[in-house]
């Protein structure tokens, strides 16, 4: 039985962003749907849509009416937890979030989504609204159907991107022969400070 090669600390950041970028295209990846935590302690699963390694920026999509939007506008610090069971990899991340409803990134997010995803922004009620009965919160004409471009365009007014610039990553690789753990932190100049830490 061969022992896997030890990770190289100064290559770890690049490898992490490669894995995150790959997860945006692979729905079966455990890294595709992290848990996002806001400063009020609320947690939710989000879909990772885009990764910009040079800016350490992750992109998610959200309804501008969602309670997390106002929370992030009050306090921009967020946490992200990724776990890939197959790769035996956990990433605990801290960063700074911002919401953009207009501009190139928002437009890229909207245009890059298919109509099944975009129909969610046609929801008549804001997310987390009280309902009288179980509901998809979709208009009847799009529930269970793929609407055409003209119909989903009405939802653009409710669409926004949530952008998170990562400032710290706690990398944890689980291994029955001995776990490995490292921390990467970026300073104000964008320089990374990395170290091994005890699992």
UniProtKB/TrEMBL annotation:
UniProt GO MF annotations: FMN binding
Name of one Pfam family that matches: Pyridox_oxase_2
Organism lineage string: Bacteria, Pseudomonadati, Pseudomonadota, Alphaproteobacteria, Sphingomonadales
Entry-linked Gene3D superfamilies: Electron Transport, Fmn-binding Protein, Chain A
Protein name: General stress protein 26
Lineage top rank: taxon: Bacteria
Chain segments carrying region Disordered: 125-150
Domain Pyridoxamine 5'-phosphate oxidase Alr4036 family FMN-binding: 42-99
């Amino acid at each position: 039985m061969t022992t896997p090669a030890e990770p190289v600390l100064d290559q770890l950041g690049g490898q992490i962003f490669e894995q995150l970028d790959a997860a945006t295209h692979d729905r079966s990846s455990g890294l595709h749907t992290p848990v996002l935590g806001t400063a009020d302690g609320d947690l939710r699963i989000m879909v990772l849509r885009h990764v910009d390694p040079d800016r350490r920026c992750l992109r998610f999509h959200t309804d501008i009416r969602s309670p997390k939007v106002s929370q992030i506008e009050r306090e921009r610090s967020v946490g992200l937890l990724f776990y890939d069971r197959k790769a035996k990899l956990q990433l605990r991340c801290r960063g700074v979030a911002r919401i953009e409803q207009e501009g190139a990134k928002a437009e890229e997010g909207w245009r890059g989504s298919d109509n099944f995803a975009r129909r969610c922004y046609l929801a008549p009620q804001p997310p987390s609204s009280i309902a009288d009965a179980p509901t998809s919160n979709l208009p009847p004409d799009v529930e269970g159907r793929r609407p055409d471009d003209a119909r989903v365009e009405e939802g653009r007014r409710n669409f926004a991107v949530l952008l998170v610039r990562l400032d710290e990553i706690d990398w944890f690789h689980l291994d029955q022969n001995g776990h490995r753990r490292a921390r990467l932190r970026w300073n104000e100049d964008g320089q990374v400070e990395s170290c091994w830490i005890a699992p």
